[in-house]
Write a structure and sequence with these properties.
single chain, alpha+beta, DUF559, 6-stranded mixed sheet, Restrct_endonuc-II-like, 42% helix, 11 strands, DUF559 domain-containing protein
């Protein structure tokens, strides 16, 4: 690409000799201090993919960035001096550009589906849908197989965050009647179980003005006959059994349903048309 930009081979060799450029491998040069993940991909002859590229694209990823995930062509070999690599040898769904070190979003999601537990993979897929990096229609037309094909069918673009995706999938396994992102009393609630049990999921943005607004809305919900359970990142990721037990106890006590006496007044509080993801048991 440097040659296409007008640099002569002589100029490039001189820049390498002076330390302005470093030759990584045939066809790949780097400037000092360049992105270490891109350097590793160039050295290996691969493409950044799976959770590594998903994280670089700003998508929700549940696993820590301890390993570098690279998509590799069949003939490539892992350099001995590079450790902590997770290599993906599967055939790409979309042909890769040999001059681009980052994998396409479709290949990234396909590798995520192969690499992660299904609920973690779904959170990343739904994050990509919400970010507009791909559409559900496109995913369903692709020749995906296995878990990826299933995720193309069930992934919900209305989940507000990866954390919400995890919660919804776990609650669906319990056979609960629930809706996601339902409009109640002027705001969306994350999950509505039955008719009046609200589960709100706090991520990193629920601070300051957002937190004040959340508290105000919680009070409005309670005053109008709803029951609110609010959980945070650590509770969902590290203490899910406690969260699940709390929700199931609330359901067992009848806090998710309205009584016949309450039904008349309750009907006017919720705009069911605003619920963007009704999920039946």
């Amino acid at each position: 690409m440097l040659v296409e930009a007008g640099f002569s081979y002589r100029t490039i060799r001189a820049m390498c000799a002076q330390g302005e450029l470093e030759r990584l491998r045939q066809g790949w040069l780097a400037v000092p201090g360049s992105d270490p993940e891109l350097r590793a991909a160039a050295l290996c002859g691969g493409h950044l993919t799976c959770v590594t590229q998903a994280r670089r694209l700003g998508l929700w990823v549940t696993v820590p960035p301890s390993e570098l995930h690279l998509a590799m062509p069949p003939h490539a070999r892992k350099p001995a001096h590079l450790s902590e690599l997770q290599l993906h040898w599967s055939r790409p769904v979309v042909t890769r550009d040999p001059r681009d070190l980052g994998d396409s979003i479709v290949n990234v999601l396909a590798n995520v589906a192969r690499c992660l537990p299904v609920e973690d993979a779904q959170a990343t897929w739904e994050s990509a849908l919400k970010a507009g990096l791909v559409t559900k229609a496109v995913l369903q037309r692709l020749p995906l197989v296995g878990v990826a094909r299933d995720l193309a069918r069930v992934a919900n673009l209305f989940a507000d965050s990866g954390l919400e995706s995890l919660v919804v999938r776990r609650l669906m396994r319990l056979g609960l009647r629930l809706r996601v992102q339902t409009w109640i009393l002027g705001h969306h609630v994350d999950v509505l179980i039955g008719d009046r049990l609200v589960v709100q999921i706090d991520g990193g943005t629920h601070v300051g003005v957002q937190r004040t607004s959340d508290i105000r809305h919680d009070a409005q919900l309670v005053l109008n006959g709803y029951h609110v359970i609010r959980v945070g990142y650590v509770q969902v990721m590290e203490h899910w059994h406690e969260v699940q037990d709390l929700i199931l106890q609330a359901v067992a006590q009848g806090l998710s349903e309205v009584t016949q006496v309450e039904a008349g007044t309750h009907a006017g509080r919720i705009n069911h048309a605003g619920g963007r993801g009704a999920i039946g048991a």
